[in-house]
What does this fold into?
Amino acid sequence: MAFPRNRMRRLRRTENLRRMVCQTRLEVGDLIAPLFVVSGTGVRNEIGSMPGVAQMSVDLTVEQCRQLEQLGIPAVILFGIPDHKDAVGSDTWNDDGIIQRATRAIKGACRDLMVITDVCFCEYTDHGHCGVIATRRDGTRELDNDATLANLARQVVSHARAGADMVAPSGMIDGMVQAIRRALDEADFADLPIMSYAAKYASGYYGPFRDAADSAPEFGDRRGYQMDPANADEAIREAALDIAEGADIIMVKPAVNYLDVLWRLKQEFDLPTAAYHVSGEFSMIKAAARNGWLDEKRCALETTTAIKRAGADLILTYFAEDIARWMS
Ligand code: PBG
Ligand code: ZN
It folds into this structure.
């Protein structure tokens, strides 16, 4: 018998063969585009650490959404930069708050685009934490989990009334999915799905986002509520709890350093699973490409395809629009 009998290269030799045996196909329908909304009209504040990404006022956000819709992107996720921050983040449940205004405007203009609202408080609180802060007897401050739940309930109902198609709680507050599910059901939004940031790690890769959303914590950090990057088993427990509380979609965040976690959650639960390719992951590719060290298109597509291969049904990425253009 001739050696070698099996030649793996046989199926790699032409474009058509490669297409025929291709196992993972990234599609525009997998992508969710994050957008940052500010007050005003005609406002476009470029974010220095995220080339091509900007905070935009509602009018320009709507224009952007029209283009995303035309490109076939199914959904956007909105982050708001409010005019006024306070201790509890009350703009989040203001029916005339930044997210509510943006949601109404987008839904009025783009019939075929889903509006997902990120549900948290860090962009809206003057201290930059993801909820209400309690002062302990010894004077130290920490996030008050249970007091935050009631405010989450107010926030999601206001988002739903503004027309949100899905809510995505990102604060890693224990019990958040249950509190949100209850509040939505009671307000007659039983059909509104919840995409929970189930396994969100305390990551250095959120750096550029905190510039974009103006949400850096004023004291301390988020390690008291977000997960330790060293832990994987805990992500299974986090997701199991969220699913039991009523999550329809679970998310892993960031994506690339946590592909093992993504894989395990997909295998374990077989639920629609999302991965957030976060700001720092985006900016790394952008920065290297700008230096001529990496090919931007090639690396962005390789990375997002790898995220899908590891188990993501949905990918939140700042490359969404670029990818849609490259693929069309
Ligand atoms: C806030 C939130 C963060 C991101 C999404 N929602 C930042 C954080 O926890 O500090 C990060 C997204 C990104 O880096 O692209 N709850
Ligand atoms: Zn937050």
Observations:
- Residues 26-327 form a domain with the TIM Barrel fold (CATH 3.20.20.70).
- The longest helix spans residues 145-162.
